[in-house]
Design brief:
The protein has 227 residues and is of the alpha+beta class. It contains five helices and eleven strands; from the N terminus they run αβαββββαβαββββαβ.
Length: 227
């Protein structure tokens, strides 16, 4: 009897492990985003994003309320995407790359946002709302203030880039609206900072660009701005 129990247990354990690996979960390596788009639109964008990254979709199931699919990388790693409807105009997308590649999962989410028309934040001439100010500070301190502003406003950091005379930091709001803070050195210890929200003009984007500026200034010490 003991031998039979051991045999049954050894047979069940791999199945349990397989079930756990199939669970997208909400761990540190699962990247989740919300979009101000229907689940159907988010689903279509997710499939297009996966295909554009040369991921082969092996199985999927979906309806107008969302769904999930599994795709494979060239090395055999599985990519799992789940789309859920929050309401008629909002959805949530979760992505996980086994065995836990958060970087690639984030790249996939950025590609999904791009397919939904929510690429990186654009300056006013190109679409989004922009606020500018000039500060007496250096590039390093300005970038530190930008990161603090993002944290305070709960902006998810997606990318940043720093050079000798300019830097930028990109992020997304909870609904995946793209935002950016761009810092340019105009002369020694004087920086022009551009706060950008969205890639289309709107009252909400204008308000958030102002909030970015306010939080940036609150995080800067000492601070002096000119308009």
């Amino acid at each position: 009897m003991r031998r039979m129990s051991a045999i049954l247990l050894s047979a069940v354990l791999p199945v349990l492990g397989a079930c756990q690996s199939n669970d997208l979960g909400s761990g540190a390596n699962t990247v989740e985003r919300e979009f101000a788009m229907s689940a159907d639109d988010a689903w279509k964008a997710s499939v297009k994003a996966a295909e554009s990254m040369d991921l082969r979709i092996s199985r999927n199931a979906h309806d107008k309320f969302g769904g999930d699919f599994v795709a494979c990388r060239a090395n055999g790693d599985e990519v799992r995407v789940q789309v859920s409807s929050l309401d008629e105009r909002h959805s949530r997308v979760s992505a996980r790359v086994e065995p836990g590649d958060r970087t690639l999962a984030t790249m996939l989410q950025e590609r999904i946002a791009e397919k939904l028309g929510l690429a990186e934040a654009k300056a006013a001439l190109l679409g989004g709302n922009t606020v500018e100010a000039t500060y007496t500070t250096d590039l390093g301190v300005a970038m530190l203030s930008a990161r603090r502003a993002f944290r305070t406003l709960q902006v998810t950091l997606t990318d940043e880039e720093t050079h000798a005379e300019w830097a930028r930091i990109d992020g997304r709001l909870k609904d995946s609206t793209p935002v950016r803070i761009r810092i340019d050195q105009v002369e020694q210890c004087r920086m022009r900072v551009t706060f950008i929200s969205g890639n289309a003009r709107s009252d909400d984007n204008r308000e958030f660009a102002r909030r970015l500026k306010d939080e940036f200034e609150a995080a800067s010490s000492p601070k002096t701005s000119t308009y």
